[in-house]
Write a structure and sequence with these properties.
Helix content is about 80%, strand content about 0%. The chain has about 230 residues and is mainly alpha-helical.
Length: about 230
């Protein structure tokens, strides 16, 4: 199996991790305000004490599995783009690997927060909530609370896809729009809404990229000269 097809599978895995994340976010975690600025830290550690496996599984899925699949996808897309826009390929690879590293780091911290808060809960639930809240803030700073790194990468991949025709035009345009939504998450007033748009757009984009890579179609040189490369 070629790297392109493996990258296509990785894109589908990324989409699946987002779908799994949303599923738990709107069910088990919805009453706790998880994913918003009003998250109930005490409620979270109560859940951690009762069922620690839920958050561990969720963090591992949306962060760790996603990051590992993302690395494969980043390299596969970079290789694909190198055939028509080598400059953009280098840029997108750099941004993509940075995002993957941040996502992986956020997942590791998120799981440590659960592991440290769980045993503390029995003796002092409020201290457990305070500890979880501090580590959760670090997690959000790395990427769980904003989508700057991911937005930049998807935006650049979308632009590269339009410039060099390395991706189908609808997929490239969706990437540009999704990337812009990710960048908007830096604005506090629009962060939650933009984050939801980014997440839903990323699911559709990952599915589109996955389908294209698995189809075996190759980039069509045509606008490389116009890109200045």
């Amino acid at each position: 199996m070629t790297l392109q097809r493996i990258g296509g599978l990785a894109a589908l895995v990324c989409a699946a991790t987002y779908l799994a994340g949303f599923a738990l976010l709107v069910t088990w975690l919805a009453p706790l305000g998880y994913g918003t600025a009003e998250v109930d830290a005490r409620g979270v550690v109560d859940l951690v004490h009762a069922r620690p496996g839920i958050l561990i599984a969720w963090n591992t899925t949306i962060y760790v599995v996603n990051a590992l699949a993302l690395v494969v996808l980043v390299v596969a897309l970079s290789e694909r783009q190198a055939a028509v826009t080598p400059g953009w390929a280098a840029v997108t690879r750099a941004f993509g690997l940075i995002w993957a590293a941040l996502v992986l780091g956020a997942g590791m911290i998120a799981n440590i927060a659960v592991e440290r808060a769980a045993p503390l809960h029995a003796a002092d639930p409020q201290a457990a909530a305070d500890l979880w809240g501090i580590l959760h803030a670090v997690e959000l700073g790395l990427g769980g609370g904003n989508e700057i790194a991911g937005g930049v990468w998807i935006l650049c991949v979308g632009i590269a896809g339009l410039v060099g025709r390395g991706l189908a035009r609808p997929v490239a345009i969706l990437g540009v729009l999704t990337g812009v939504a990710g960048l908007v998450t830096i604005l506090p007033a629009l962060g939650d809404a933009a984050g939801a748009v980014f997440g839903l757009g990323a699911i559709a984009w990952f599915l589109g990229v996955g389908a294209q890579l698995l189809s075996g179609t190759h980039p069509r040189p045509g606008m490389v000269g116009e890109s200045g490369e």
